[in-house]
Every structure is written in structure tokens, then in C-alpha cells.
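User: I'm putting together notes for a lab meeting next week and I want to include a structural view of one of the chains we've been expressing. I don't have a solved structure, so I'd like a prediction I can at least talk through. The sequence is below, exactly as it appears in our construct file.
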Amino acid sequence: MKSKNIFLKAAVGILCLAVVFFSCSKSSSKPSNPGGPVTGTPDATLTNLGTNIIVPAYQQLATSTAALDLAIAAFNSNPSPGTLTDVQTAFKTSYISWAAVSEFEFGPATDLFLTTHFINSFPTDTVTIRNNVNGAAYAIDGLGNYAAQGFPALDYLLFANGTATTLARFTTDATAAGAKQYLAALSASLKTKAAAVSNAWSASGGNYLNTFINATGVDAGSSLSLMVNAYVEDFDVNLQNYKVGIPIGMYGPSVLPKSPTKVEAYYSGLSDQLLIKQVQSFQTIYLGGLDDKVAATSAVNNGQPLNSVITTEFTVLLAKIQALPDPLSAGITNNSQAISDAYTEIRKTTVLLKVDLPSALGIKISFQDDDGD
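Assistant: Thanks for the context. Below is the predicted structure for the 373-residue chain, given as C-alpha cells.
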């Protein structure tokens, strides 16, 4: 997905990668973004979120990307309708696993580049992908390749133009060897990053879980602040704007041409399932302890307890998302009312999460979007 800051963010990412051993290495004893958090008694909410939600989600992503990598190796050895189906199934499982961790873009995820800009930049750059397949020199995580990697690039290679064309790309085409090589490189990058982040959170690895549950408080370096900022940004920027707003022709206060091809997972038609999983994850995270913290503040919204309002809103939003036409791109083309209804609900949820939630918790939202909200 794209924004006016993408090139700056990608450039910073590459620079950080180049000097990782000197300035970007992950400490197992400090939060990734230092800001003077209060440390001491583990926080119950952070303990539950980290132990029962974040760590299992990263483990699932690591497992699914490893399975995808094995399926791609089998496909490259013997491209056939059967092995292609196996790869496509593994891809869908892995992509949906990503939707359950995109909310946690802090700590190991940012240090190890398991981030939206490297993993899920869409619409994918098909021109660069074809150039890479045709023999152009490339680095998967290179500055010029951020939009030609990750799940969207795999989505294009594995699903565009149907089974026959896809199989020809890896068998009879003159660049079949390059296509196999690029497919394997994309998969290996995903597997490596997912495994590294999962390991960084584990007790036997970097044990960031211990850091996370002990960095209490609500200041800029606390775990709650880091997580809420990432949580809100993922909903506001990624879900609201790029996954729904831009494809339907709405970006903040602007009305744009509808762009059905700009939906997430356009080629596989997985957009709806990814949205459902992501909203379910947002709901699970909120009910994983944020609800208790909000309830404890006695904050209200229009005279109602804020916790009750947010809890109810997630239920309503999920129902709207589950009612979306499938595939989402066709619904946009056909001017589906269900999409307009869902977008209206998304906007309502954004205000609750971006304004009311952090205000109740005393957390400053530090990320900057660019849609005029």
C-alpha cells in the first residue's frame, strides 16, 4: 500500500538494515522505542495480550510461511495443476495469518522489517516483478523493490490470468527459470522474517515478551503506547484508507475515481477474508485487556460507557464486513450498497479507536496519517 511517506520509510528501512549491527540491533532488555517507560510489576493486560494473542499469532505466521515455502519448493520442482493448488492454498493460509499480526508493527516487527511496507504493499508493482523475472538485478528488500515483494507479489505470480497462464509462466515461458527463482526468493524472505520475529518474542529467543509485559505505563516508550499506536495506525491507515477507502474512491475528505484493482489480494480474490480476519483480530485485541483498562477509566461517549460503545461497535462492524460482496473488487464495480455501509461503520470505528480510546487511556497518538482526518 502506498502513501506520500513510503519512499522515506523504505529508505530509512534500508539504511537501518545496512547498519543493523551498530544502531538497529534489538536489545532484549529494553523496549524497541525507548521513551522512559515505567518498569516493574508485569501488567496483567500486557501479559495476556503478549502471551495469549501476540506470541501465538506470530507463531502461526512463522508456521504458515514455512509451509508456504515448502509448497513453493515442491511446485518449482514439479509445476502441475496439483502442486499449484497446494501452493495457492498455502498462500491463502499464510496471508490470512498476516492479517492477525499487522496490528503489531513495533518492537521486533519494525527491527526485523516484518512490516506492512515490506510485506503487504499493494497494488503490487507488476512491471518491476516482470523485470525481475526477466533477469534484472534485484534485492528483495531493496529500496526499488518494496512494492514488488511480499504477499501482493506472490498474489500476482500465483493467481493472475488463471491456472493455464500461471503454469505456463513457470514451465514453457522463456523466463520460467527466472519466475521460479523470484517466487522462491519472495517466499524465503517472508519465511525468514516471520521466523525471526516469532523467535524474538519467544523465551528461548530474544524474549521480547518479557520486555513487553514489564514496560508498563502509558508514556511514549511504554508497551501500551507502542501497541496502541500501532493498533490505531493499522486500522486508520491500512484498513480504512488503503484496503477500503481508496478502492471505493474515498480517501479522507476526497472523492476519487473508483479503483477496484487496488483492493488487497486482487488476483486471488482474498480481500474479504483478509478484512474479516483483520477486524476479528482488532476485536480480539481490544477484548484481550484494553476493554478492562477503558472500563476502569469510566470514560463515556455520548453519555454511554466508552467500553460498551467500542465493544458494541466491533460487533456491528464485523457484521458489516462479513456482509461484503465477494470478491470485493466486483462489489466496487457494481456499486454495492453493502460496501458503502461497511465503510461508514469503519469511519465510526476509526474515531473511537483514534480519538476516544487513546484519550481514555492517556496515550498520545504519535503517528501521522495523510488523509486529512
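A couple of points you could mention at the meeting. Confidence is low (pLDDT under 50) at residues 2-39. The radius of gyration is 21 Å.

User: Perfect, that's what I needed.
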